[in-house]
Each structure stands twice: as structure tokens, then as C-alpha cells.
Amino acid sequence: MEEFLVSVFKMAVPLLLCSLGTLFSEKAGTVNIGLEGSMLTGALFGVLGSYWTGSPYIGALIAMTSCVVLSLVFAFFTVTIRANQIVMGVAINTIATGLTISLNRIFLTSASVVKVNGFKSIPIPFLNKIPVIGEVLFDQTVPAYFAYILVFLTWFVYSKTDLGLRIRAVGEYPAACDTVGINVARLRYSTLLYGGIMAGLAGAYISTGQLSAFSEGMISGRGFTAYAAVIFGNFTPLGVFRSCMIFAVGMGLQYRLQAMDTPVSYYFWMMLPYIITIVALCMYRKRSNAPKYSGIPYVKG
Amino acid sequence: MNETKKNNAIFKTLKAAYYPLFALLIALILMAFIIKLMGYDPLNAYQVLFTSSIKSAYGWGETLAMAIALIFSALSFSIADRSGLINLGASGQLYMGGIAGMLVATNFEGLPSIIHIPLVLIAGGLTGAAFGAIASLLKNQFGASEVVTTMMFNYIAMHFCTYLISGPMKNPASDLAQSKSALPSAVLPLLLKGTRLHAGIFIAIAAILFYYILMYHTTVGYQMRVVGMNPKVGEYAGLKIKTNQLLAMAIAGGMAGLGGAIQATVIDVRLTIDWVGNLGFDGLAVAFLGGHSPIGIAISSVFFGLLLSSANKMEMLAKVPSSVVFLFQGIIIALIIGRRIFQLGLIAKWKSNYQNKKSEASDLLEMTRDAEKTKQDALALKQMTKKGSEE
Fold first, then answer.
1. Segments forming the whole domain that contains residue A170
2. With contacts defined as CB-CB under 8 Å, which chain B residues touch A299?
3. Of A133, A170, A230, B268, whose CB is crowded by the most CB atoms within 10 A?
4. Helix (H, G, I), strand (E, B) or coil at A235
5. A71-106: per-residue pLDDT in tens?
6. Mean pLDDT across B212-229
7. Chain A 88-107, CB below 8 Å of chain B: which residues?
8. Is B8 a member of any domain?
């Protein structure tokens, strides 16, 4: 049981980082499916940074920086140039695929897997002595603790601050926001960059934190799942948290069931997270909280 | 008046035709810098990439063989796009079509080719169509975004295929996870000795013709385009948007499924792990470079066929990783959908605000014109449906 919970949390951390990060940009009215590519880039640069400097933390910083660059490209094309956001997301994913494979072959040999220093878990004294939960929750790495804090932080910024209100308003009616003096483009830029930073951290957590290595295409759809978690979570911080946990349970279950000798083939368990995502999207019929101007570029009049 | 209109139209088509070439040029220059940054010689890489294949019959054969698969994959994206849906599920549809085609191709020993081959194609096409239609049904029934569901279906189809070839469809004679080879009677004949260019090229050409006729010479295609351009206008004209999109998605999936069946039986001969690779998204790049037009898709599929079939040679001879082709694809897609990057004239924008306002104004003018045109379209359509019901 404990083992299962540990694996669920391992799955949940990158999802939480990524979808809580992207929640703001989604609320501001941009659809970013380039998350997959951002996470992949973050995963590579996290490993590269740790490989060069020996420190996974500097690796994570480099990962986040690389994703800032990628998000800047995305933001420029979708906000300034007003290109189709979904197709631009695909372009970012394609670019990230090509970039990571190429750089991986140049810097890290493709013949053997290069292991780098990963995040070390830092137990929190006393709290980690609580039976069952203690070991699961309070014997984690720094990004994982950060993810816990992020849940509260996101909720706070989203619903209690002026900034959160502005972000929500921009997704609802950008023209009105413009008239009252909110800079729509700047807000969308900054939320996209913030989402990119979080996706980069999530990617670094997956590569340096979990496997201590990079492999081509290692994100395998988790960026899309993070995006789906925002939709399924009805665009609210707590909803996103809940849906991330549901997806994480699905993924944890997948590994658990793979290990057990079930009559159903191993490959069907591999499909489980994707099926859960589809079912979850279908179950959520009323998306009352989705921003009205989602995916629509704003033309300053 | 008429003369200017005509001139305008000619200018517009020219503009539409030259832009992809322009984007291509920019992408090539950008890529050269990136290859240089990676520490390789871009000119050498380009020389291998673009000239090694067109010098030999073998190179041409491989290029065209690659182009066949790309055409189906691109059509799958374009057809859905025309009806206003974004089909990111070409990979999954290719997998399912390949599986179904392969099931028929490995069984029914003794059937004559003239029956066996069409059976393979039909099986692939229908399965792909069904798989594509599911995404549309989920959208219509439950409001699930087709962008996410088609993406998820890609992974599901991939794992399903891996399950089949390591279980029920596994070739018992092999240790690897792969299916049995397609029976010779089920495989389309090769056209050029020593290469993998096959008779599927005629089917691909037929598919492009089908796309052209469907979109520009049938009522259904016209309705799809209206729905894609402006669903509200479609609704106003009394069109059933959901049915229309469902049909478009089924045709799109059918195209990819057909392509999958052909690719699996002729090129790969057997199903292996991850046999589709990036084919689904390569098709997206082809569709965008071709501007979703039938002739554009034909030309850009040959171009990307050349690129993809020579990428490995480039890695061998110029040492540049073949994966830079993906980078190139991504840049091309970005430049094509972001064509305003050049129209806006960013430098000019910084220089003077006046010009910017002018371009905004012309945009507005264009938008009004478009709106008027859709309005006229809707009226014409309404009359057409009225006429139909009277008859």
C-alpha cells in the first residue's frame, strides 16, 4: 500500500507542477498544448545541467531557462502574431522532439544511458515519522515539496489577489480588460512564460528526479495529460489538484497492476492513464468555468 | 471594376502560392544556422539532403514511396481542418488502419490479388474511419475536446498495436514482437525494381483527386467548408454541424487508415513496435506547407518525402543527426501559421505606428469582405437546400 502511494505521488508531482503552472495561461485565454514539448525540453536540459555541473538544482534552473525561451517563441507566435494556438503547440512539440533528440545525441551518447546526479530526498523531521503518510508525503525531494506549496500558492493567487482576478478577467473578456487599462498581451505573455517555467521544472523532475537519465520521448503524453487535467479540473486550482490526483492514481495503478500477475495484458494497463483522461473529459459535460475567449487571439482595437 | 477584381484574384493566388516557398527559404536559412551552431557543416548537410536522392532512380523511388504515406496522413489532417476540427490523431488512425489491413493481409491464403488487395484497403480504411469518428462522437455527445481525445487515442492505438504483436498477432517463428509477414497476394505490386515505390501511388493520387472533388465539387464538401469557416453561418443556413463534422472526421480517419494499411503491408511488410513513428505529425507539416490545397499537398509531400528519405543518409555522410528534420518541420509549421510575422513588418511597426494602423485597417477591410462573402455563401446555401426540399 505504501509503495503504491509513493508511486502515485511520484506521478502526481510533475502533473501538479505542470498543470497548476499552465492554469493561469489557460485562464488568460491561451491554449497551450506545447506543454508536452516544454516538458521534454526541460527533461533534457535538467539532465544536461546536472551532467555538466553535477548539481540537479542547477540542472533544474537550466531546464526552466530553456523552457522560458521555448515559451517566449510560443507566446510571440500566439499573442503577437496571433497564430492558431493549437497548431503552434504542435509546432513547439515537433521542434522540441527534434531539438532534444539531436542534443541528446550530440552531448550524451545514444549508445549508453548517462546517469546523472538526481534530486535527493530530504525528510522533514518529526512529520516523516507519521505512519504511512509520513514516508509518502514528508520524505520527498525539493520539487515535490514545492508542488505541495504550489497548490496553496496557486489557490491563493487565483482567488484572493488582484492579479488572479485580472488573469481570470482577461480570459473572459479581453476587450473590456483593455479598456480598464489591463495590458492583455503582457498578461498573456507572462502567464505563458510562467507556465513554461513550471513545465520545465516538471520535465526536470521526471528526468533527473525519477530516472536520473534522459531518454528520447520520455514524456509520452504527460504534457497533454497535464493540459487535460486543467480542463477536467474545470479551470480552478482545487479542481486541477483533484484531477491531477485522479490521473496520478491511474498512472500509479498502471505500474502496480503491471507488476501483479493479472489476467489482463500488461499493455492494457499501459493504456489506462490515456483512457482515464478521455473518460474524464467526457464526464465533464458542463464546463461553466472555462474562459469565454479560450483560444481566441486578442486584436487590440 | 471587373478587371481589377480579376487582377486582385491573380495577385491573391500568387501571394498564396509564393508564401510557402518563402517560408521554406527562411526555414532553410534558420536551419543552416542551427546546424552550424551544433557544430556541423550546413552546406554539406544540405547537399546530401537535397541532391543525393534526386540523382538516382533509387533515391526517387524511396522519395515517392515516403510521399505516398505522407499524402494520406496530410489529407487526414486537411479534411478535418476544412470542417473546423483539429485532427491530431493521424498516428492512431494509421495504427488502427495498419492493424486491420494486416489482419486481412496475413489471413485468407489463396485469395487472388485482385480481391485480396482491395479487401486489405477496405479493412484499413473502414477501421481508420471508425477510429476517427469516435473522437467526433465524443465531442458531439460529451463535449470532449477533439484535440485532447485524438492525442490520447494515438497512445492508446500504439499500445494496442504493441499488445497485438506481442500477443495474439505475434509471429510464432520470431523472438521479436512483430506480426507475421503480409501474404504476397495482399501486397500492392512494386513499380520500380530495387526500390519500395509501389502501386499505392495511384491510390494516393486518387485520394488527392477525391479530396479535390469532395471539397470543391460536391454539396457535402461545400457544407463542410461553410461549417469550418463559420459554424454560426452554417447553423443559420440550416446545416447539421455535428453530422457534418462527424462525416468529415470519418473521412479523415479513413484516409489515415487507408494510408496505414498501405504503409504496413507494402513498406513495413509486418507490424513492428512503433512502426508509425512520427508519420502522423509529418503529415501535419505536409498539410500546412501545402496550404491544405490538393495540389499543394501533392507537391509538399514529395518535398518532405525527399527530406525524410534522405535524413538517414545525411546522418551517415554529414554526421548531422537525422532528427534535425523534425526541427525543420516545426519551424516550417510555425512560419506558415505565423505568416503575419512578415505581413506585420515588425521593424516597420517599431519605426512608425502609422503603417501598423494601415495594416490593421486593411485587415479589417478583409474581414468585412470575408464576412460578406460568408453571408452570401449562406444565402446561396439556404436557397440550395430550399430548392432541394422542393424537389
1. 2-110+138-283
2. 360
3. A230
4. coil
5. 999 999 999 888 999 999 999 999 999 999 999 888
6. 92
7. 88, 90-99, 101-102, 105-106
8. no
Does A94 map to a domain?
Answer: yes
Q: Mark whether B179 and B96 lie in a shared domain.
A: yes
- % of chain B exceeding 70 in pLDDT: 87
Strand partners, A140: A122
CB-based contacts of A189, cutoff 8 Å, min separation 6: A75, A79
Q: How far apart are CA A214 and CA A156, in angstroms?
A: 34
- Work out the average pLDDT over B236-243: 88
B27 interfacial to chain A (CB closer than 8 Å) = no
Residue B262: inside a domain: yes
A14, part of any domain: yes
Contact at CB, B142 and A285, closer than 8 angstroms: yes
Residue A56's domain is classified under what CATH number? Answer: 1.10.3470.10
B86 touches chain A (CB under 8 A): yes
Type and span of the H or E element at A219 = none
User: Predicted ipTM?
Assistant: 0.90
Give the total number of structural domains in chain A: 1
Give the C-alpha separation, A179 to B390, whole Å.
51
Chain B contact probe: residue of A33, A36, A72, A90 with most B CBs at under 10 A: A90
- Report yes or no: A275 and A227 within 8 Å, Cβ to Cβ: no
CA–CA distance, A121 with B38 (Å, rounded to integer):
35
pTM: predicted TM-score of the whole model, two decimal places: 0.87
SS3 B183: coil
Based on the structure, what is the number of domains in chain B? 2
Q: Would you state the cell numbers that stand for residue B202, as one nine-digit string?
A: 495511384
Do B264 and B378 share a domain, yes or no?
Answer: no
Give the integer Cα–Cα distance in Å for B179 and B166.
8
Residue of B nearest to A220 (CA): B155
CA angle, A84 then A219 then A97, to 5°: 55
Indicate if the alpha-carbon torsion angle B366, B367, B371, B377 is positive or negative: positive
Query: Is residue B356 less than 8 Å (CB to CB) from chain A?
Result: no
Contact call for residues A19 and A227 (beta carbons, < 8 A)? yes
Instruction: Tell me the residue range of the domain where B66 lies.
Output: 16-342
